[in-house]
Amino acid sequence: MNKFTLLLISFLYSLFSILCFAQTRKPVTAAAKKPATTTVKKPVATTKAAPTKKVTTTNNPKIVKAVQSNPQYKEVSYTLRGKAHGFEEGEWISLCAPGNNGLEATDSVQLQGEDFTFKGRTLNVPYMKYLVVGKGVHKTLVEVFIEEGNITADITADKRIDQVRGTVTNNIYMPYRDSINTIYTQIYDATRESMRMSNSADVREAYKLGIDSLHNQMVQYTYTFARKNINNWAGLYLFAEYHKRFTVAQNKAILAAVPKKYATLPIIAEIRKYNNSRK
């Protein structure tokens, strides 16, 4: 996610308050900032112990409780290796999780040249976290599912060309994120143009209609992707995050397709209850 997407997030939070990816687009707290001294001649990676218990497919506390109390979920190992291009020597990169005050760092390392590595333990349930590197307008935030296996990430400052691959859920999610980022960029450009002082009320209204159309396009694409992938964690994650933006009929269609392995998760009962309340 490049600087344009981050600026868009600020616009959307203040103007539209529509994104359910709380997951995705929250300000990084002080815990995620790099230490005061960041320039070193020979950067040495320093890591903190990452939490191994508080993990789940989403931020929903009912899913947290479900996966932690179910014996089928066990601790597994993951490794996240990557390259971060175009950042300062000795820059810190943080692996962050959503918290009560935005994104909070659970682990941080210094870049060794362009390279970085995170290793840890997690439950065998894909958990959305975020890589945060850089500062100011050059700050970059990249979504990554933490799950068992070897994850690879490639990040470039100021460019929306980051890649996260290597494990099943990340490979499935990558095409979705690329498509959504394209829509976000269009929304950002339209929002910026609509706020120009020289625009008339009619022009601003036209931009608003265009932006609303892009929002609807984003929701429709997310629905299509979630329904197609409801048999895996990427689809379930999006369903959990976006179901309040889907129509009653759309939620019914996805609920009917939920496989048995996910049918007993509390989030499914929660979505069903919510959907019934909208009738």
Overall geometry comes to flat
Main beta-sheet annotation? 4 strands, mixed
How many helices? The count is: 8
Task: Provide the spatial order of strands within the biggest beta sheet.
Answer: 4-1-7-8
Low-confidence regions: 2-60
End-to-end C-alpha gap = 38 Å
- The percentage of residues in β strands lies in 15-25%
The CATH architecture name of the largest domain reads Sandwich
Which keywords apply here?
279 residues; 8 strands; 2 domains; four-stranded antiparallel sheet; 8 helices; 22% strand; alpha+beta; Immunoglobulin-like
Structure description:
This protein has 279 residues and is of the alpha+beta class. The chain has two domains: 3-167, Carboxypeptidase-like, regulatory domain (Immunoglobulin-like), CATH 2.60.40; 176-277, no CATH class. 41% of the residues lie in helices and 22% in strands. A hairpin with a 6-residue loop joins β5 and β6. α1 crosses α3, α3 (168-194) runs antiparallel to α4 and α4 (201-228) crosses α5 (233-242). It starts with a helix and ends with a helix. 36% of the residues are buried. The model is unreliable at 2-60 (pLDDT under 50).
